[in-house]
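Q: Given only this backbone (525 positions), what sequence would you predict?
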């Protein structure tokens, strides 16, 4: 036969390699390894602003990571390829193993080897019972955990073939099947999932519709309108509480909310959302993922009008909640608009040269820094960000750092007063119909893994034959199929139990003749 590698042989070889358990384990390791950057690096679908800042701060290294998909790991082609190959590998290697295991479960235990004393563990003793009578007693002594088959041999001898530990392979298969099911559920769940992020100030609320979210990330079916957000409304974020240690470290965040879980027609309910305690509504989960501050100011405009405004400032430092934001106030003329760019420091620290930072996220004599511009905000009628404004037609008329109650007096009669602050919360609404099923798959994986690691495969044979005198001689041999563990002690205990199952003969010498042979010739099983 020629050794030429034909296309058919190449495909068969590739398929055998792909569907081997070794390949499946390697792919599973690569999948876990590939998920690590998703936890260490900012992900664009979750936080596009932080991702852009990371790329900008790290230059060419950041651009390289972006080029290979490290900022959208779970949506990258290479992660999807590993995922798909793992799925194919598991299917290809599990189907033959399930068939082999099913045949092994249906097959009777193998006949006893010719010479039991050559097995790794062996022993013999004598009883006064007849071979058939003792065989019945021995089956009872082995217990229900052993699968036992009785066979007759020449000369009136009887053999018992016993096996246990089939649940080891069963657990192994359950683990891998559950893993396969989990992969399918994750893939299916991504089709039906949706996720929305919204910032809500204390005292305000929102209703769950796609247009009301600041960020909306639907799965394929949700994007096509086949899955719609659950009809609920957070009527009011009644109170947000942040608890800190004496050192300024955060301990607990909690948002007390009032809500309707059936659109606007249901009764009002109340609950508290915490970091690890989401609000569950009609298949959706509302998580508290962040918080910050919205400074409140009062502005006297150039035309004499007084406007009070509260705007959300976004943290630029997650640890201290040092935040930045803007106010956009429309005037009555083309050059009387007021734009204010500012920062908010919860616990201000003066670092010199006019630089203010924050040492903690806890509020302690907060400071609002404002840079005030006058001119034309250049509204185009198109959607625009609430966190920036166009300064091309604006002129800076002043800047000042304010504490609560302090007023900045600027040209053209403009004044800015820092009135205080209101907390805001970042709520994430997630929908994944496969999550509950994934829990059962995870439990099945744990149980299967526990069985595959904790159960040991054992085989024991008994040959019961009439002796030269009235006694019946019982020879016992044992073999550990998987790992030896403490099989020597286990076999000794089993041997003693089998001896006690029979009627002992008068002379005890032979019953004490327990022989533990080496593993020189274990015999074929």
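A: Predicted residues:
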């Amino acid at each position: 036969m020629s050794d030429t590698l034909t296309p058919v042989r190449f495909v068969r070889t590739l398929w055998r390699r792909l569907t081997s358990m070794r390949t499946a384990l390697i792919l599973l390791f690569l999948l876990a390894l590939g998920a690590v950057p998703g936890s260490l690096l900012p992900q664009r679908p979750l936080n596009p602003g932080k991702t852009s800042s990371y790329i900008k701060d790290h230059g060419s290294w950041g651009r390289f990571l972006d080029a290979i998909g490290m900022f959208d790991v779970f949506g990258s082609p290479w992660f999807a390829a590993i995922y798909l190959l793992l799925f194919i590998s598991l299917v290809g290697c599990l189907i033959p193993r399930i068939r082999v295991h099913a045949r092994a479960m249906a097959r009777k235990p193998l006949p006893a080897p010719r010479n039991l004393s050559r097995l790794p563990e062996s022993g013999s003793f004598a009883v006064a019972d007849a071979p058939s009578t003792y065989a019945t007693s021995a089956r009872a002594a082995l217990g229900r955990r052993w699968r036992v088959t009785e066979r007759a041999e020449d000369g009136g001898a009887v053999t018992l073939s016993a096996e246990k530990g089939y649940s080891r392979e069963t657990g192994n298969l359950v683990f891998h099947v559950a893993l396969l099911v989990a992969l399918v559920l994750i893939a299916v769940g991504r089709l039906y999932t949706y996720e929305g992020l919204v910032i809500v100030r204390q005292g305000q609320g929102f209703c769950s519709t796609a247009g009301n979210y600041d960020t909306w990330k639907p799965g394929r079916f949700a994007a096509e309108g086949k899955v719609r957000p659950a009809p609920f409304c957070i009527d009011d974020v009644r109170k947000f509480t942040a608890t800190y240690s004496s050192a300024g470290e955060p301990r607990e965040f909690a948002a007390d909310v009032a809500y309707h879980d059936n659109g606007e027609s249901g009764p009002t309910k109340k609950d508290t959302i915490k970091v690890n305690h989401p609000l569950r509504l009609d298949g959706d989960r509302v998580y508290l993922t962040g918080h910050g501050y919205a400074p409140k100011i009062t502005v006297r405009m150039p035309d004499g009008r007084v406007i009070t405004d509260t705007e959300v400032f976004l943290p630029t430092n997650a640890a201290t909640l040092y935040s930045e934001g803007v106010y956009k106030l429309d005037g009555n003329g083309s050059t009387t608009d007021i734009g204010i760019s500012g920062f908010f420091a919860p616990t201000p620290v003066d670092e010199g040269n006019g630089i203010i930072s924050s040492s903690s996220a806890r509020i302690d004599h907060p400071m609002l820094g404002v840079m005030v511009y006058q001119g034309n905000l250049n509204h185009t009628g198109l959607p625009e960000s609430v966190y920036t404004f166009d300064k091309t037609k604006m002129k800076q008329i002043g800047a000042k750092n304010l504490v609560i109650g302090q007023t900045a007096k600027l040209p053209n009669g403009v004044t800015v007063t820092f009135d205080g602050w209101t907390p805001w919360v970042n709520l994430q609404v997630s929908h994944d119909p496969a999550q509950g099923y994934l829990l059962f798959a995870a439990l099945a994986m744990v149980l299967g893994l526990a069985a595959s690691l904790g159960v040991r495969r054992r085989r024991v044979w008994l040959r019961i034959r009439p002796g030269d005198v009235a006694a019946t001689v019982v020879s016992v041999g044992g073999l550990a199929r998987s790992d030896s563990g403490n099989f020597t002690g286990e076999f000794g205990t089993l041997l003693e139990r089998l001896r006690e199952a029979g009627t002992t003969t008068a002379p005890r010498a032979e019953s004490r003749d327990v022989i533990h042979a080496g593993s020189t010739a274990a015999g074929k099983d």
